[in-house]
Each structure stands twice: as C-alpha cells, then as structure tokens.
Amino acid sequence: MTEVRGAAGPNGGTDARRAPGTPCWVSLMVHGLTATEEFYGALFGWEFEPGPQQLGPCVRALRDGREVAGIGQLSPDLHLPIAWTPYFASDDVDLTAETARLCGGTVGVGPLDAAEAGRMAIASDPAGAVFGIWQAAARLGTALSGVPGTPVWDELLTFETSSVAKFYETVFGYEEEPVVSADFDYVTLHVGGRPVAGIHGVGLSLPRDRGPHWLTYFEVADVEATLREVAELGGQVLKPARDSAHGRVATVADPEGAVFSVIQSPR
C-alpha cells in the first residue's frame, strides 16, 4: 500500500493524465443521497456539486475545492450491493471493456459517455468483483491526493490471487509482484514500475454476504478520532485500528453498509 495516484500537481493535486490501469476515481451508489452527503461531509470534510446525470441524480465530492469521489442515487426499485467502486484509467474504454469480456469478465454498464467528462464502463472480474473503467476527456478523475479525505489505495479481496491477477494483467497491462510467503497470498499490481493496487487472496475468510470485492482506503489525520466519528454519524467499525507496515488502519462501513478502510499514514 502506498500513495499511487499519479504525478502530483500544485497543492498535492494529480492533474496529469493517468497511465492505463492507474486508479483514477472512486464512486458510490446509494439509496439516500442526502444522508450519505451528510455522513461523508462530516467525516471527510467533503463538499458537493452536481455531477453528470446520465445514471440518475449524482454529485461530485470535493475536498479543498478539488474532486475526490462521486456519489450517485439508486432507483428505489434497485436493490444492489452498496459499495465503493474504483475506476481504472484506460485510453480506449470500449477496447478495455471488450478485453475484460473476452477474459471471462462481465460488462454490466456501458461503455457510455458521461457528458463532456469522459467515457466509462462498469465491469466485474471472473470472480465477481466490480470495478469501473474510465477514459478521461474533460475530467481526469481524482484531482487531489495525499491529504485527509482522499483515496490512497485500492485492494481487491478475493479467494486466491493467481487466476484473477492474470485477468487484470491482461485487461490493464499490469506488472505483477507477488509477496513470497507460505501463508500470505498477495500480489501488488504495478504500472510503469509504480505500485498502483493490490490483490489479497483471503480464501474462506472472504465474507459470505459480499464475495470478492474491491476495498478503497481513504487517508485520515487520526484513525482513532475517525472511528469515533464513524460511530457517532451512524456508521459501524468492522475492524478496529491496527498498525500496519504502511500506517495505522481500520475498516468501517457507512450507514448504508458501504465498506471502506481508513489509513493514517506515517508523518
């Protein structure tokens, strides 16, 4: 796990176009858009502005005036899992989506244009984990990194890494770096020599009610204070704070059940 969001611009921004396969955006679809804005606004200091409406009502979350994430509202009759979805950059979303399909994945949405912002698709890998594909136009994606309230890492939790890592390598051109350990199944995905995401094979420890899924980590200034806020705002602490090689981390869920991790990186 590391800060991987692309070349930093002024004030910690990430204005450069991402290389294919680089995480570039995260989005969340919920039933209660206003309540979700209130939760993340209080937790991460986000403000909101309207986003492209092709998929229904949605907003862009801003931190310090710069885009960091998207939140949309599900139709009342849609009962889909509430989950954060990472998007990976592509120079040709149609080709990337077709490659995912040919490699055993499923394309559930698109490819379609998101107004002037870019072109997108939502797909799932052969094990069922959902991810997005983003071909940037006017909007390059997450425009701020490395400060509290911004996404800093995406990690796939799945049964085992070998077959699914091959899928992502073929679709996005990643280089793989497996962790050599008898009891730790982990592969780091690299773009241009930089780590950009991880795949963690957890076997039967995978939650039965979720299956394979991507987990987004958000930077925070103080993990313990964040956990108290999560509880006060109606969320849940799923895994308490613990030390890791990359900082102090914890896993939580928002009031609608969207799971994410928070990390306090070493200063």
From TrEMBL:
Checking InterPro entries in the record gives: Anthracycline_SecMetBiosynth (IPR052164), Glyas_Bleomycin-R_OHBP_Dase (IPR029068), Glyoxalase_6 (IPR041581), VOC_core (IPR037523)
- Domain VOC, by residue range, is 22-136, 150-265
Q: One Pfam family, short name please?
A: Glyoxalase_6
PANTHER family cross-referenced by the UniProt entry: CONSERVED PROTEIN, GLYOXALASE-RELATED
Its protein name is VOC domain-containing protein
Record lineage:
Bacteria, Bacillati, Actinomycetota, Actinomycetes, Kitasatosporales
